[in-house]
Amino acid sequence: MRISTTVMLTDETIVPARLASALEERGFGGLYLPEHTHIPVSRRTPAPMGGPAPADGREVPLLPRPYGRTLDPMVALAAAATVTERLALGTSVTLVAQHDPIVLAKQIATLDRMCGGRFTLGVGFGWNVEEAADHNVTWRRRRDLVRERIALMRALWAPVPTAYEGEFGSVRASLAHPKPVRPGGPRLLVGGAAGPTLFAHVAEYADGWLPIGGSGLKDALTPLHDAWRSAGRSGAPAVVPAYVLPSPGKLRHYRDLGAEEVLLQLPSGTEPEVLRTLDDYARYL
Predict the structure, then answer these.
(1) Percentage with pLDDT > 90 across the chain
(2) Where is the Luciferase-like domain (predicted)?
(3) What pLDDT band is residue 89 in, cutting at 50, 70 and 90?
(4) C-alpha dist (Å) from residue 53 to 40, 59, 60, 63, 64
(5) What pLDDT, in 10s, does the model give residues 55-70?
(6) Sign of torsion, CA 126 127 128 132?
(7) 28: how many CB neighbours lie within 10 A of its CB?
């Protein structure tokens, strides 16, 4: 089981290149970065980590400071790619609905080429209604939108010019280079809470599931595998628990359940703070 990391990098934290070098030097498997384009101050969406829910029309409290200061993950990972040779790079997650898929396809393929095929695309549907609304995302249709945008990007990644026509967008058969190193696109993991809708998406167009933590993971594996087989997929989906605060027992549990990788959560902190945490986490390698 590969031991990788995830962290909210901001303009106030350790810089991506320094973190990536430190991870590779210590033998960690990878670096995955989340995404928020912006965080509207006026917000009624409750925080994903819990806290008070909106009531009586009142707004919920502001999110922790790093949420509104996150670096663009593609740019940050490009910096990481230039100073590493083995470290896996990925997103945890990319909010695909908030992007122009033609531009995003180019960014992903370029980054994957820069790092020699080490990139994993973590895909998320989002939780912040106000953030998505500023991107003109219709909330109840966001899953359909993401599904279609993945298909459009794969048309651009195809080895020959391939057209795609969908409900939300289309692309003509086009010359679109570079291509990702792996035919069809990089490894793709879908993030989200366990359930039949999420598992249907994983089985249809992904390589695996990126759950937040591992609560209920054991019980979720059977319906995940059932959905996978029902979609006619061979083998088994990858399972990569993310944002994990490690302990020996927890990591052993994930390994025994067949997780091929786990993303340990690093603090969104300064260089000394993050490096101290890496040295502490190194015992799990």
Answers:
(1) 91
(2) 18-243
(3) very high
(4) 16, 9, 7, 13, 16
(5) 555 666 678 999 999 9
(6) positive
(7) 25
Average pLDDT, stretch 116-143? 97
Q: What is the pTM of this model?
A: 0.96
Task: Determine the Cα–Cα distance for residues 78 and 227; give it in Å rounded to an integer.
Answer: 35
Q: What Cα–Cα distance (Å) separates residue 267 from each residue in 9, 90, 119, 168, 224? A: 9, 18, 22, 38, 31
Give the pLDDT mean for 245-274: 97
One DSSP character per residue, 14-71 reads --HHHHHHHHHHHT--EEEE---S---SS--SPPTT--PPP-TTPPPPPPPGGGGGBP
Report whether 260 contacts 278 (CB < 8 A): no
Q: Is the peptide bond before 93 cis (omega within 30 degrees of 0)?
A: yes
Of 279, 200, 190, 177, which Cα lies nearest the Cα of 242? 190
Residues 88-103 as b/e (b if ≥16 CB within 10 A, e otherwise) read: bbbbbbbbbbbbebbe
